[in-house]
Write a structure and sequence with these properties.
Largest sheet: 9 strands, antiparallel
Order of helices and strands: EEEEEHEEEHHEEEHEHEEEHEHHE
Shape: globular
Structural class: alpha+beta
C-alpha cells in the first residue's frame, strides 16, 4: 500500500522546556511555560444542508488537546480507535503558494481506516514532527472529526454520545481539563520541515514524495474552488503566474516523466486545461502514449517573482499576464 520511508534530519535539535518536549518542526521562540491538557467546548449545528450550500455538521463537543511530542503518537493512535472502518482523510500543507497559506486536501470518497493508520505509522516522522503539515480524518455516520494541526495540537469533534469515550482516552494519558493548554501556538513560534533530503540515499522520501503518495493512496483533492482565483481574504486575483509540477504515466510503471511548467491562468480549472495541452506535446518512451497526467502541485507566484522566472523581454510578459498561456516548461 505505502512504500518508502522518511527520516528526520539528525542535525536538528529538539527544544525541551520544563520537561515538555516540542516537535522538531514547530517550537516557541520566546520564553513560555508549556501546559499539557485540554479544553472542551460545545458547538451548535451549522451549515445549510437544506439549501445545498454545504453539508450541515451536527451539534458537537470540541476538544483542543496539547500533549508533548513524545506522547502525541500514542494519544492519536488511541483516538483513531473511535473512528469507523471507513473515513475521509484530511491533509493540510503549509505550501509555497504566494496567496494561500495552507493547501487544504481532503478525500471526497470513503477510504479504509487502515489506509490512514498504515500511512501514519510509516511516515510518523512527517506527521508528528514536521511543522509544515497537519492531518486527520472525519466521518459522518457517526460524526467524528480528528485533526492534528501544523502545531501538533489535536482537535476532536464528536457528538454527545461519543463525548465520554474521548474523555476516557484522555484520562488514560493523565490529561485533564485546564484553563488554557499551552503549546507552541500559544506564543511566537517557528515552523520548519524536518525530513532529511534524499541526497545520496535515493530510497529516502522527501516531503514532496510523501505528499504525492498520500494524495494517491488517500484519494485527496485540493479543497478549493477551481473556477476562481482567490487569495486567503477572498479577493479575486484574475490572471496570475503559476509554477506547476506534473507527472506523466504510461502502462509501464517504471516509465514516468516529471515536468515543471511556468504558465499564467485565472483559475485552477484554466491551469489544468493548459497543463494537458502542453503535456500532449511531450513524447512518451518507445512511441507509447501517456495514459495519465497527475498535477502534483500548482503554486501561484508574486508577479515580480514570476516575471523573473520567465526571463523573457518585458512586452511578452505583460501580454502573458493578461491572456493566460504556457510560458515555458522543462523535463526533470
Amino acid at each position: 500500500m505505502f512504500t518508502g520511508r522518511c527520516e528526520i534530519d539528525p542535525a536538528l535539535q529538539r527544544l525541551v522546556v520544563e520537561g515538555f518536549e516540542f516537535p522538531l518542526g514547530v517550537y516557541p521562540v520566546v520564553s513560555m511555560e508549556p501546559c499539557a491538557g485540554y479544553v472542551m467546548g460545545f458547538e451548535p449545528a451549522d451549515g445549510n444542508d437544506t439549501e445545498g450550500e454545504w453539508e450541515e455538521w451536527p451539534d458537537r463537543y470540541v476538544f483542543d488537546i496539547v500533549v508533548p511530542e513524545n506522547r502525541i503518537a500514542s494519544v492519536c493512535r488511541s483516538l483513531f480507535t473511535l473512528l469507523p472502518g471507513r473515513v475521509y482523510p484530511i491533509l493540510d500543507i503549509l505550501g509555497h503558494d504566494a496567496f494561500r497559506e495552507i493547501d487544504p486536501y481532503i478525500s471526497y470518497c470513503l477510504v479504509g481506516l487502515d489506509h490512514l493508520t498504515d500511512a501514519v505509522q510509516r511516515y510518523s516522522a512527517f506527521f508528528f514532527e514536521d511543522g509544515m503539515c497537519g492531518f486527520g480524518a472525519m466521518c459522518d455516520d457517526p460524526f467524528i472529526y480528528i485533526f492534528v494541526d501544523e502545531h501538533k495540537i489535536i482537535t476532536v469533534r464528536v457528538q454527545e454520545q461519543d463525548k465520554e469515550r474521548v474523555e476516557r482516552v484522555l484520562q488514560a494519558y493523565d490529561l485533564s481539563l485546564v484553563d488554557e493548554p499551552m503549546g507552541a501556538d500559544a506564543v511566537m513560534h517557528e515552523h520548519r520541515s524536518v525530513l532529511r533530503t534524499p541526497g545520496d540515499q535515493p530510497r529516502l522520501l522527501g516531503v514532496d514524495q510523501v505528499i504525492e503518495k498520500l494524495r494517491t493512496n488517500w484519494h485527496l483533492t485540493l479543497n478549493i474552488d477551481i473556477e476562481t482565483n482567490l487569495d486567503d481574504d477572498a479577493n479575486e486575483l484574475g490572471v496570475t503566474g503559476w509554477r506547476c509540477f506534473a507527472r506523466l504515466f504510461n502502462d509501464d510503471p517504471n516509465q514516468h516523466q516529471l515536468v515543471e511548467i511556468l504558465l499564467t491562468a485565472d483559475s485552477l480549472h484554466h491551469l489544468e486545461d493548459l497543463v494537458f495541452e502542453v503535456t500532449d506535446q511531450i513524447p512518451a518512451p518507445d512511441d507509447k502514449s501517456w495514459d495519465e497526467i497527475v498535477i502534483l502541485s500548482a503554486d501561484r507566484l508574486e508577479t515580480a517573482d514570476f516575471l523573473r522566472e520567465c526571463k523573457t523581454d518585458s512586452n511578452p510578459e505583460k501580454v502573458a499576464m493578461k491572456t493566460g498561456k504556457v510560458i515555458k516548461y522543462k523535463l526533470l
